Fold this protein.
Amino acid sequence: MPAPAAATTLTEEGTGFAPSPDEVARRAYFTYVDQGCPQGRSVQHWLDAEAEMIKERQITRTHMGSNKT
């Protein structure tokens, strides 16, 4: 199964990181619940969760790299 376009685009920028489907599902579910369980947005919740996790990883890697002495 090919990766969603959002994940493919972000990982091609050099992160080399893709969150596991279980991690993405968990994040998407909590977003779904936080938003009052709206119907018909499951794909958007998934893509948003995946993009957020990749972005968080990039920020973490950037900050960890700047702490080297």
Observations:
- Residues 24-69 form one domain.
- The chain has a mean pLDDT of 80.
- Residues 6 and 47 are 7 Å apart (CA to CA).
